[in-house]
Backbone:
């Protein structure tokens, strides 16, 4: 498993990317937070980027959650602030609920509310989403997903390049793992400090409607980045960095 640790004292800020992406999702934010003196840990999920995946195994959310715990152990961190984008946001939610003693704060970036209620139409969409993706020709899936995820030309091109590195079969497994993390229970509340960030033009899944409901239910502010899509850290890198700095300062994380 490939990861980088900027080192230093204090509570680490652990950044987790989304489905089909890699640690480069956080390049700008990781560099800025490390320059501020934060200890920053960034990793590639198994089967993503430079992290390997046993060819006899398929990607599962359960394995990814075990990896997250192992990563905290590997860097000697009892607790960390978890920052997760998309799939990384859903993994971080699940980890925070299972291991609140290991999480100093949770920042969810362009990911849906895992415990949020689902309409009948949303449930139907989840049921057919993976089979529909499987119908895309291998050469066009990365291009389609990149254009759905980012809005600026530079971010679209960069996303397509990264997404194209993953075999289609693996991507479908990864996407399925994302949906497996959804566990509707609207009465459940996050057991650690929570912050929510979303691109104003994010149209993936139900994020644009679920995150405002989640913010209201939890009594937190939803931080919406203007003119940014799902890949907010690339569409609006400076604004995303400012929000992360503000969140960490508000929590007293040093």
Residues:
């Amino acid at each position: 498993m490939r990861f980088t640790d900027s080192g230093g004292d204090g509570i680490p800020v652990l950044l987790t990317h989304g489905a089909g992406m890699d640690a480069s999702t956080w390049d700008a934010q990781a560099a800025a937070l490390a320059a501020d003196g934060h200890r920053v840990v960034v990793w590639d999920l198994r089967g993503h980027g430079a992290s390997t995946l046993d060819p006899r195994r398929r990607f599962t959310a359960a394995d990814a959650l075990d990896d997250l715990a192992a990563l905290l152990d590997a860097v000697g961190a009892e607790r960390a602030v978890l920052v997760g984008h998309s799939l990384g946001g859903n993994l971080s939610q699940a980890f925070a609920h299972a291991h609140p003693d290991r999480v100093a704060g949770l920042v969810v970036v362009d990911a849906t509310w895992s415990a949020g209620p689902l309409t009948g139409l949303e449930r139907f969409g989840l049921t057919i989403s993976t089979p529909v993706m499987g119908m895309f020709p291998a050469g066009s899936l990365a291009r389609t997903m990149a254009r759905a995820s980012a809005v600026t030309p530079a971010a679209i091109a960069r996303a397509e390049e990264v997404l194209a590195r993953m075999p289609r079969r693996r991507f479908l497994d990864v996407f399925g793992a994302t949906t497996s993390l959804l566990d509707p229970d609207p009465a459940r509340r996050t057991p650690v400090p929570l912050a929510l960030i979303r691109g104003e033009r994010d149209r993936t899944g139900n994020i644009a409607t679920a995150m405002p409901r989640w913010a209201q239910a939890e009594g937190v502010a939803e931080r919406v980045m203007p003119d940014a899509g799902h890949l907010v850290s690339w569409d609006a890198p400076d604004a995303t960095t400012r929000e992360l700095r503000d969140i960490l300062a508000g929590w007293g994380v040093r």
About this structure: DSSP finds ten helices and seven strands in the chain. The longest strand covers residues 103-109. The CA atoms of residues 12 and 77 lie 7 Å apart.
